[in-house]
Amino acid sequence: MKMLLFDFRESEKEFFETREFKDIDITFIKAPLNEDTELTEEQLRETDVISVFINSNLTAEVLARFSNLRIITTRSTGYNHIDLMYCTRNHIAVFNVDHYGEASVAQYTTGLIITLVRNLLPAYLGMKESSINQVLYEGRTLQNLTIGIIGCGAIGSAVAKTANFFGMKILVNTYMKNPAVSDFVEYVDLEKLLRESDIITLHIPYTPEVYHLISSKEFEKMKQGVYIINTARGELVDIVALYENLISGKVKGAALDVLECEYLAVNNDNLADEIRDSDGKCMASALLTQKLLDMDNVIITPHIAYNTKESVHYLLEETFNNIKDFSKGMHTNQVC
Predict the structure, then answer these.
(1) Order of strands, edge to edge, in the sheet holding 2-6?
(2) Across residues 114-140, what is the average pLDDT?
(3) Catalytic residue positions?
(4) Which domains are assigned to the chain?
């Protein structure tokens, strides 16, 4: 079985150095897979399996280049970067990995919250530039704030437990109550969460039904000076509306580990050309990202909330378990 593993990172080397993979011939490619990826005719003809991360963009045009592709395994929980309709029509099995970043993403989310609320970023920049202004660094103590958590699965509940440790009031909007946190959270509808939360953090998967779940009308309902945290999926937040509310001061700070049209911004030396060739939605997102990066009250990181040694190794272990299961007629973690 021949496999192409795209978006291979240095942090994954140790996993492969300490393991053998019988019956799988793996070719490692550092770049993501998209329409510009150059592959040999032999690779396009003989590849059975491709493994990708969210930086890849697997459109029908990209996938149609492969003659005998049988399996796509994404090293992520989300799979909106893969054309599932094409895969279904062409009998290509698609697998994802669930529950790989519960602790790491929750811990990272907490770090982002503290960084924003305690104004660590402007304080650091002030020290770096020898221009210290104590007034700008005044923060808030967490036990006096209300956190609104959208989604209460493994990650959302882990964030809730940390917030409870800090003594915060916790509002949760979720389709299913989680008994692990029910004793100390209040389950509310989205409108109440938006209206009463000082900090709003998102922890739900992306589906077309929740595209721009947080947009202009949602920002209108929020408190003045709210903080927004997104370590879930970029498509959940309308970045245009976010930018407008940061400029107006309605949003006091934002931390984004994920972006809409994320493949444009990651490891892309030709961003300007890509923006011109993309649709209007992606163009607006990419251009506004550049403006957000210039704001002292905004933190943007390159989708690394999950990125610990333990989570990466779990991702890879499950990726190869998915392939092995499929060869045995099992369909664990199969999306389509």
Answers:
(1) 25-29, 2-6, 49-52, 71-74, 93-95
(2) 93
(3) 233, 262, 303
(4) 2-100+308-327 (3.40.50.720), 102-300 (3.40.50.720)
